[in-house]
Design goal:
heterodimer; A: seven-stranded mixed β-sheet; four-stranded antiparallel β-sheet; B: six-stranded mixed β-sheet; five-stranded antiparallel β-sheet; 58% strand
């Protein structure tokens, strides 16, 4: 299996622009998670899906953030408009049930 | 919410040395994982270990759920073991993993 795939690996954008991060989970996994990692806050869960349905989005920082999972093999995390404080590494992870999570390589986002 | 504390925060070892990393959590947990974040930022699964003991090569882990801690043992450390080690726990059926702040390990040649 190819593992969790994320794109792009690096994104540099200007403040105010829309950013879309993409994730392809491991085939057969029915849970998908989006995390953000910063020096100040560490790794924090933003949102997770079960069978393509958002279950808990309490970690989404504000309305500028949105996530979708239109099918079992694809999810997006969108930031609109982006701000410099959104700069972080964004990870996607997937799992079968809630057991062992597998992480993608991450997207390093820089907002200038 | 649950608190997850890892110790020590930083650790420097000579190649070949052994080490023990600790993860304490403040409430009962259903699931627990250990991860290694390598210097390139990738999070690598080490163990899924809600209870008991597991071993994988030079690494082993033990979770004593009733006493709310888990230990990660690294034996005969190598420079490739450098990075940050995270403990993550899921509790009370929340279906959310909470990560500790990590132990940063540096192994010197």
């Amino acid at each position: 299996d190819a593992g969790v795939i994320q794109s792009p690996r690096h994104e540099v954008t200007e403040m105010g622009q829309e950013v879309t991060l993409r994730c392809k989970p491991i085939s057969g996994h029915d849970y998908l998670f989006w995390y953000r990692q910063t020096m100040m806050r560490g790794l924090e869960l933003l949102i997770y899906f079960n069978n393509n349905v958002p279950i808990d989005d309490s970690g989404m920082p504000e309305d500028r953030f949105s996530a979708k999972m239109p099918n079992a093999s694809f999810s997006t995390l969108k930031i609109q408009p982006s701000e410099p404080r959104d700069s972080a590494v964004y990870f996607c992870a997937s799992s079968t049930a809630i057991y062992e999570q597998y992480f993608g390589p991450g997207t390093r986002l820089t907002v200038t | 919410g649950i608190q997850v504390e890892q110790s020590p925060p930083d650790l420097i070892l000579q190649e070949g040395a052994n080490s023990t990393l600790r993860c304490n959590f403040s409430d009962s947990v259903n699931n627990l994982q250990w991860f290694h974040q390598n210097p390139w930022g990738q999070l690598i699964n080490l163990f899924y270990i809600p209870s008991g003991t597991k071993q994988n090569g030079r690494l082993s882990a033990t979770t004593v759920a009733t006493e709310r801690y888990s230990l990660l043992y690294i034996s005969s450390s190598q420079t490739t073991d450098s990075g940050v080690y995270f403990c993550a726990v899921e509790y009370s059926g929340t279906y959310k993993y909470i990560f500790g702040t990590g132990t940063r390990l540096k192994v010197l040649a």
